[in-house]
Amino acid sequence: MAAITLELMLIANQYYQKKVQHIKWIKKIGLENAVLITIILLAATISVMAVSSLENPIYQRKGFRLVGFEFDAKMLLHNFGTFLAFFSQFLIM
Fold this sequence. Notes:
Number of strands: 2
Largest sheet: 2 strands, antiparallel
Shape: elongated
Protein backbone atom coordinates (compact mmCIF):
# COMPACT_ATOMS: atom_id res chain seq x y z
CA MET A 1 0.00 0.00 0.00
CA ALA A 2 2.84 2.37 0.87
CA ALA A 3 4.62 1.52 -2.39
CA ILE A 4 1.50 2.32 -4.41
CA THR A 5 1.10 5.61 -2.57
CA LEU A 6 4.75 6.48 -3.18
CA GLU A 7 4.41 5.61 -6.87
CA LEU A 8 1.32 7.82 -7.21
CA MET A 9 3.14 10.68 -5.51
CA LEU A 10 6.10 10.30 -7.87
CA ILE A 11 3.81 10.26 -10.91
CA ALA A 12 2.02 13.38 -9.66
CA ASN A 13 5.35 15.11 -9.07
CA GLN A 14 6.54 14.21 -12.56
CA TYR A 15 3.30 15.57 -14.05
CA TYR A 16 3.75 18.76 -12.05
CA GLN A 17 7.32 19.17 -13.19
CA LYS A 18 6.44 18.76 -16.88
CA LYS A 19 2.98 20.26 -17.30
CA VAL A 20 2.05 22.60 -14.49
CA GLN A 21 5.28 24.25 -13.43
CA HIS A 22 5.54 26.56 -16.46
CA ILE A 23 2.22 28.26 -15.62
CA LYS A 24 3.16 31.52 -13.90
CA TRP A 25 0.09 32.05 -11.70
CA ILE A 26 0.56 28.64 -10.09
CA LYS A 27 4.10 29.58 -9.11
CA LYS A 28 2.76 32.63 -7.27
CA ILE A 29 0.57 30.52 -4.99
CA GLY A 30 2.50 29.99 -1.79
CA LEU A 31 1.74 27.76 1.14
CA GLU A 32 -0.31 30.41 2.92
CA ASN A 33 -2.49 31.07 -0.13
CA ALA A 34 -2.94 27.35 -0.78
CA VAL A 35 -4.12 26.82 2.80
CA LEU A 36 -6.47 29.81 2.53
CA ILE A 37 -7.95 28.53 -0.74
CA THR A 38 -8.43 25.09 0.79
CA ILE A 39 -10.18 26.52 3.86
CA ILE A 40 -12.49 28.63 1.67
CA LEU A 41 -13.39 25.65 -0.54
CA LEU A 42 -14.08 23.42 2.46
CA ALA A 43 -16.24 26.08 4.13
CA ALA A 44 -18.21 26.62 0.92
CA THR A 45 -18.71 22.88 0.38
CA ILE A 46 -19.87 22.21 3.93
CA SER A 47 -22.15 25.26 3.81
CA VAL A 48 -23.79 24.09 0.58
CA MET A 49 -24.32 20.64 2.06
CA ALA A 50 -25.74 22.13 5.28
CA VAL A 51 -28.23 24.32 3.41
CA SER A 52 -29.18 21.50 1.06
CA SER A 53 -30.06 19.20 3.95
CA LEU A 54 -31.97 21.79 6.03
CA GLU A 55 -35.55 20.58 5.52
CA ASN A 56 -34.76 16.89 5.18
CA PRO A 57 -36.21 15.04 8.20
CA ILE A 58 -33.56 12.34 7.94
CA TYR A 59 -30.93 14.81 9.17
CA GLN A 60 -32.99 16.38 11.99
CA ARG A 61 -33.04 14.12 15.00
CA LYS A 62 -33.93 15.11 18.58
CA GLY A 63 -32.96 18.75 18.17
CA PHE A 64 -29.73 18.07 16.29
CA ARG A 65 -29.22 19.18 12.72
CA LEU A 66 -26.87 16.95 10.80
CA VAL A 67 -25.16 17.79 7.52
CA GLY A 68 -25.88 15.33 4.74
CA PHE A 69 -23.94 14.78 1.54
CA GLU A 70 -26.50 16.59 -0.63
CA PHE A 71 -26.21 19.38 -3.17
CA ASP A 72 -29.48 21.10 -4.08
CA ALA A 73 -29.22 24.32 -6.11
CA LYS A 74 -32.87 25.20 -5.51
CA MET A 75 -32.42 25.04 -1.73
CA LEU A 76 -29.21 27.05 -2.02
CA LEU A 77 -30.91 29.85 -3.94
CA HIS A 78 -33.96 29.78 -1.67
CA ASN A 79 -31.85 29.96 1.51
CA PHE A 80 -28.93 32.05 0.29
CA GLY A 81 -28.82 34.14 3.48
CA THR A 82 -28.54 30.97 5.54
CA PHE A 83 -25.76 29.80 3.23
CA LEU A 84 -23.85 33.02 3.85
CA ALA A 85 -24.33 32.66 7.60
CA PHE A 86 -23.09 29.06 7.55
CA PHE A 87 -20.21 29.99 5.25
CA SER A 88 -19.02 32.79 7.53
CA GLN A 89 -19.24 30.54 10.59
CA PHE A 90 -17.33 27.70 8.94
CA LEU A 91 -14.78 30.15 7.58
CA ILE A 92 -14.06 31.48 11.06
CA MET A 93 -13.83 28.02 12.56
